[in-house]
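Objective 1.3, modelling of assemblies. Example input:
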Amino acid sequence: MEYFLELFAGGLTRGSIYALIALGYTMVYGIIELINFAHGEIYMIGAFTALIVSSVLAMSGMSGVSALVLASIVAVVYASAYGFTVEKIAYKPLRRAPRLSPLISAIGMSIFLQNYVLLAQTPDFLPFPNLLPELPLPEAFGNIIGSTELIILLTTAVIMGGLTLVIKFTKMGKAMRATAQDRDMAMLVGINVNRVISNTFVIGSALAAVGGILIASHVGRVNFFIGFIAGIKAFTAAVLGGIGSIPGAVLGGLVLGLTESFATGYVSSDYEDVFAFALLIVILILRPTGLLGRAAAPKV
Amino acid sequence: MKNLTALKQPLLVSAWFMFLTFPLMVIRVNTIENVVEWRWRNMIWVGTASFLLTFLWRYLSDRREAARKEAERTEDHEQTLGRFLAGRPEVGRYLSVGAMILALIFPFVFSTYQTNIMATALMYAVLGLGLNIVVGQAGLLNLGYVAFYAAGAYSYALLNHHFGIGFWTALPVGAVVGALFGILLGFPVLRLRGDYLAIVTLGFGEITRLVLENWNDFSFGPSGISNIPRPGFFGIALDIRGATIYLYFLVLLLCLATVFIVNRLQNSRIGRAWIAIREDETASQAMGIDGTKTKLTAFALGAFWAGMVGVIFAAKTTFINPASFTFLESAMILSIVVLGGIGSIPGIITAALFLILVPEYLRAFSNYRMLIFGSVMVLMMLFRPQGIVAGARRTYTFRRRKSGPELERG
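Predicted structure (tokens):
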């Protein structure tokens, strides 16, 4: 039973980070129907920036919570700036192009960013300092869930709550929902669609950066390639939940995280990624629009 | 004063990029020795480069806008290379005869190394043409094409390892195994919409690679299979040079056969059904095209070529392991199709040669080649989305003349 709970907690942690990254995919897809392949790279850049800033801070004698907060802020700002720039360069000129063009552009951008970090920094894994504070947990509790895992769960829960509020109640959130529903109609009622799209990229990138920092401090190392597999997994989570749907991304992330955790715990750890993709294929065959996605009737 | 405002934007852009690249380009931390390296010179590079590139960017964007306006004004289709070739078949004929002669004498003029690279480039051309059936003609985005390629390569390697089956027997077997894989994957997933299909094929590609990597008893895991024999030449033992030239001609032959078949397919009943499905699935079904069957044929045919090239790949390198079949490989083949110009046979061959040969000869910049590769992909989409040689579609245009309307085929 304890083993089960441990796996459950591990799966939730993993899943909540997938969900954080998946939100970026799903929001972008909801608005411009583009699989933003470079999103995983934004996540990687967020983690890398946090690593660089926190190392510089640590060497100048600053550590603990203040270093963590500063490094996170810088990382989030930079990841958002990268997301914003990528959209302006690689996707905005292609708004009216055929579907395949922005997708190829995104794959190109992803390869570019990976190699940019590879060349500017290092091809090796760098150790990521553990910035998250150690929470005092009761002994029985501590066997099941670690302090880092608990912090990850709480942070993601708070962020997702915040995001829901922003999207439900602010003017910008309303504009985003309107744009997702019908871009041309949104333009007609005076919504600055370009700004909404930029905002979406900025928010998605910021969430990815938070995910990057959390997982890097959990796993303890980063390199230029971590964005690829995390990106694919997060996209899988987004599709699993029904792409374009925000609660769907969260649900998909959690389902994916739990599946992986139980599969590796009870079956075999060699096939961790195989389970993730197999789950995706099975769910899409049974429910082609994902768990919470709505089927759009084809217009004739 | 006007010059000042013209400079304002490039200066802002350059400042933005200096800010953007600051932590990654300027700072490098050595976590073992606890030293921070500040590389301010990089910042100056980034600033200057982005300042200059802004002008190039603006020039290209202006030109693209002008071209679009021009096209709208004259209501004429853009004069593309592909259309030009279609209009003058004799030029195309001269070009292909020239290319053919060049391809025939190539191995005797250049070294074994060059021939080997050229054979690789031609292999990718065949892969591109195969994927073009799926992506270009039927409009099904397949991001896991490499799985079929792996299926072909492993079927030859394993059949040879266990049963000693030779290359010529394995070639059709590998192709059929590839096609069966295509049907196996295609059957359940083809009712999915475009983007879902893309991600499922991507997942399938990854599953294939991961299974090959982990199922040691079956595929010998990450260490792969070595000592795969090269294709036999009527029982005569060939030296390295001979074997390379032989393989080169084999691939060339396959490439020619593929061009012939793909060309015939394009204008066939099934080829037109693929295009109809791509353009509007509902309407094409209303016209009596069996959607599932048509898509499945496209999938299986695409996979057939991948399987065949896989067998040749295994025979060429004599060693395979799962690392050769990553997502990057799928992305590479897809970019060949897209950069060449979707649906355009000469374009795809040009793109394959370009994408394989240029990185090989850019060995001096080997660190930068993937960086350049990525940016070329983005830039091509922005400034030349129709590809190097845009595919000319069969169109009929009406042109009014004084003496009355004339039907012109272009």
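Residues 2-32 of chain A form the longest helix (31 residues).
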